[in-house]
Specification:
The protein has 24 helices and 8 strands. By secondary structure, it is an alpha+beta fold. The strands form 2 sheets. It has a 4-stranded mixed sheet with strand order 2-1-3-4, covered by helices on one side. The protein has a 4-stranded antiparallel sheet with strand order 6-5-7-8. Helix 16 packs antiparallel against helix 17.
C-alpha cells in the first residue's frame, strides 16, 4: 500500500485530486441543473399527500419541503457554487457551500417513496472541500502561483500527504457503496439461490416490467436473459466477488486499474440490461487512476530557459507550470549557477534579457515560438496551439510579444526572495471528515442490512428484530444508506397501482409510462410513489392519495387522451412477471370523475 507514496509525490497526487474534482463536478453539474428544473417544474405540482419524508426531513414542516420558490432559488445558488468549484474560484468555500445545499436539495426528491442512490455525491463534495483539491487546475492555483512567483518561487509548495489521504478516503467510500449489496447478495445466494439463472432472469424481467409500466422503456434492450444458464450464474457470482472485494483491494496500487475496468464493465452491463446507469458513480472512477504518473512516463520534457530576475518571466513560468499536469516543463533559471544552464552556451545572458527560450530534444526556439512549443506540450492548451499557429494570429502574436518583451525591465540575477510560509497540511480536517463519512456509511448500511436480514429470517417477536425495527422506522436513508442490493427473492406475481383513462364510449386506456416519467420522475420513483398508495390501509386516504397522483398525471396526458376523457379509474392489478408482463387479476378501487380532477 506504500507503493503510492513511492511512485508519486505530493505534487502528483495533488494534481490527481484536482483532476478528480474537475471530472466529478463536470458530471455533477447536469444533475444540479436537472435538480433546479425539478424544483421549478415538478415541485409546485406535488400535493402534501404524496410526501413520504425520510431521515432529517421527517422533522421539517411539509410547508418548507413544498416551498418551490425557496428550493428553486437555493438550487440556482447551488449550481453557481458547483461552477465555481469546477473553475476553482474560492474552491474550498464553494465546495463547502455546495455540500450543505446539495445535502438538502438533492435529498428533496427522496421524500416521495423512492430513494435515488446518489448519496455519494454529497460525500465526495465534502471530501473535496476538506482536501487540497483547489491547489491545482484552478483559478485559486493560478493566483497562488503568481503570488509565489513574486516571492521568488515559480511554484508554491504542495501540502504533504493530504491529497493522497483525501483520495484514499474517496476510494474507501466507493468500496463501502458496493460492500453492503455484495454481502446481501452473498447471503441470499447461500440461503436462497440468488445466483441461479432462474432468479437472475426474474430480476431482469421485473426491471423491464417497471420500465414499461412507469417509464419510457419500450424495448427490452440487450436480451441477457437468453444467455446460457451457466453464463448467467457466473455473471451473478462475478458481481458478488466484485462488490465484496472492491473495498479490500482498492488501497493496493496494482489492483485499482483492474477494479476500475471491472466496475465500468459492471455498470455498462447494468445499463444495457436493466437500464440502471449509476453514471454519477462511474465518474468517480477517475480518482482510481494515477494520471500524473502515467502521463509523466509517456511524455518528453521541454526545458525552458528564462530570466529569473524578471518578475514577469517568473509569473509566466508559474502560470504554465500550474497547467503542467504531467510535469513536462523543466524550467531552468538564467542565473544562480544551475548546471543545466551550462549545457546551452549558445543562449547568452544578453539573449535571456530579451526572450524566453524553449528546448525540446535538439530544437531551440525563442520568443513567441517558445510559447507555441510550450502550449503544444500541455494538453490543456492544445486548442490554443491550433489558434496560435494560424499565420495571421502568429503575426499579431509576435508583434505583441516583441512589444511587451522589449518594454520589460529585466536583469540576469538571483531575485531577492521572501521565504514562502509552509502550507498547512490540514491532515486533521481531512481525517475527521473522511473517518466520519466512512463510519456513518458503514454503520448505516450494515444496520439496514441487518434489519433486512432479520426481517427475512427472524420471528416478528424476536428481541433482536424488535430492536432493529425500533430504529429502522426512522428511515435514516439520506445521506447514508444501504445501496440497492437486488438480493431479495420476490414472487413471480406483483401487485401494481394502475390508473386508466376512460373515454366517452367507455373504453379504458392505461396511462402511458411516459406520462409517469414526465410527471413524477424516472420509472423507479414512479413505481414507488404508486406502491405507497397501493398499500395504504385506509380506504379514504387511499382515494385521496390516488386523486392527488392522478391530478399530477393529468397535466401530462397526451391531448388525445385528455380531451375525450370522462373519468380516470384506479385499479389494483396483479401482473405475472416475464419477458412481457401478463395481467392475472384486477380490482377496481376508485372511479374519479373528470370534474374531480
Amino acid at each position: 500500500m506504500r507503493a503510492d507514496e513511492i511512485r508519486n509525490d505530493d505534487r502528483g497526487w495533488t494534481y490527481n485530486l484536482a483532476l478528480f474534482r474537475v471530472f466529478f463536478l463536470a458530471g455533477l453539474l447536469p444533475l444540479a441543473i436537472d435538480n433546479a428544473n425539478w424544483m421549478a417544474r415538478l415541485l409546485p405540482t406535488i400535493s402534501p399527500g404524496l410526501w413520504d419524508p425520510v431521515s432529517f426531513y421527517r422533522y421539517l414542516p411539509l410547508e418548507l419541503l413544498g416551498n418551490a420558490g425557496l428550493a428553486h432559488a437555493l438550487a440556482l445558488v447551488n449550481v453557481g457554487l458547483i461552477v465555481m468549484g469546477l473553475l476553482g474560484i474560492f474552491t474550498r468555500a464553494s465546495l463547502a457551500g455546495a455540500t450543505v445545499l446539495s445535502l438538502y436539495l438533492f435529498g428533496l426528491p427522496q421524500n416521495m417513496g423512492k430513494l435515488h442512490h446518489y448519496h455519494h455525491l454529497v460525500w465526495f463534495l465534502a471530501i473535496l472541500a476538506a482536501g487540497p483539491s483547489g491547489r491545482a487546475l484552478s483559478i485559486d492555483a493560478l493566483v497562488r502561483g503568481v503570488r509565489s512567483a513574486d516571492r521568488g518561487q515559480i511554484e508554491p509548495p504542495f501540502p504533504r500527504g493530504t491529497a493522497l489521504l483525501t483520495l484514499r478516503f474517496a476510494w474507501l467510500l466507493i468500496g463501502l457503496l458496493y460492500l453492503g449489496p455484495g454481502l446481501a447478495k452473498l447471503e441470499s445466494a447461500v440461503t436462497s439461490g440468488w445466483a441461479s439463472a432462474e432468479n437472475l432472469r426474474h430480476i431482469i424481467w421485473r426491471k423491464w416490467m417497471e420500465g414499461s409500466l412507469f417509464g419510457t422503456v419500450e424495448a427490452t434492450g440487450w436480451r441477457a436473459d437468453l444467455l446460457p444458464d451457466v453464463v448467467i450464474t457466473l455473471g451473478g457470482l462475478g458481481v458478488i466477488a466484485f462488490e465484496i472485494g472492491f473495498v479490500a483491494l482498492v488501497l493496493f496500487r496494482k489492483a485499482r486499474p483492474w477494479l476500475a475496468t471491472a466496475g465500468i464493465v459492471f455498470h455498462v452491463g447494468n445499463h444495457l440490461v436493466l437500464s440502471i446507469g449509476f453514471e454519477h458513480l462511474v465518474v468517480a472512477y477517475v480518482s482510481l487512476i494515477d494520471w500524473t504518473s502515467m502521463g509523466r512516463s509517456a511524455r518528453e520534457h521541454v526545458k525552458i530557459l528564462y530570466d529569473d530576475g524578471c518578475r514577469m518571466c517568473r509569473r509566466t513560468i508559474s502560470v504554465v507550470r500550474a497547467l503542467d499536469v504531467w510535469r513536462i516543463l523543466e524550467p531552468i533559471p538564467g542565473a544562480g549557477g544551475d548546471p543545466r544552464r551550462l549545457r546551452y552556451p549558445q543562449i547568452t545572458d544578453e539573449m535571456l534579457t530579451h526572450d524566453l527560450f524553449a528546448i525540446r530534444e535538439h530544437r531551440v526556439v525563442g520568443g513567441y515560438d517558445a510559447y507555441v512549443l510550450i502550449a503544444s506540450r500541455l494538453p490543456l492548451l492544445w486548442p490554443a496551439t491550433l489558434l496560435m499557429r494560424l499565420p495571421p494570429v502568429a503575426a499579431i502574436g509576435r508583434s505583441i510579444y516583441r512589444r511587451v518583451a522589449d518594454s520589460r525591465s529585466c536583469r540576469v540575477a538571483i531575485p531577492a526572495s521572501r521565504p514562502t510560509p509552509p502550507a498547512h497540511p490540514r491532515l486533521r480536517v481531512i481525517t475527521v471528515v473522511g473517518v466520519l463519512l466512512l463510519t456513518l456509511q458503514a454503520v448505516t448500511s450494515m444496520w439496514m442490512l441487518a434489519y433486512n436480514l432479520a426481517d427475512m429470517h427472524l420471528d416478528p417477536r424476536h428481541p433482536v428484530r424488535d430492536r432493529l425495527t425500533a430504529g429502522a422506522w426512522r428511515r435514516p436513508v439520506w445521506p447514508f444508506d444501504l445501496y440497492p442490493t437486488f438480493a431479495s427473492i420476490e414472487e413471480w406475481e406483483q401487485d401494481v397501482w394502475e390508473a386508466r383513462v376512460v373515454s366517452g364510449s367507455g373504453r379504458e386506456t392505461r396511462i402511458p409510462g411516459g406520462v409517469y416519467a414526465a410527471a413524477v420522475g424516472n420509472p423507479s420513483r414512479s413505481r414507488s410513489v404508486a406502491a405507497l398508495i397501493r398499500i395504504e390501509p385506509s380506504e379514504e386516504r387511499h382515494r385521496d392519495r390516488s386523486r392527488d397522483l392522478v391530478r399530477v398525471l393529468w397535466r401530462y396526458l397526451p391531448p388525445e387522451l385528455r380531451d375525450g376523457a370522462v373519468s380516470v379509474r384506479v385499479y389494483d392489478v396483479r401482473y405475472r412477471i416475464g419477458v412481457e408482463p401478463v395481467v392475472v387479476s384486477e380490482r377496481l378501487r376508485h372511479d374519479l370523475a373528470r370534474p374531480v380532477l
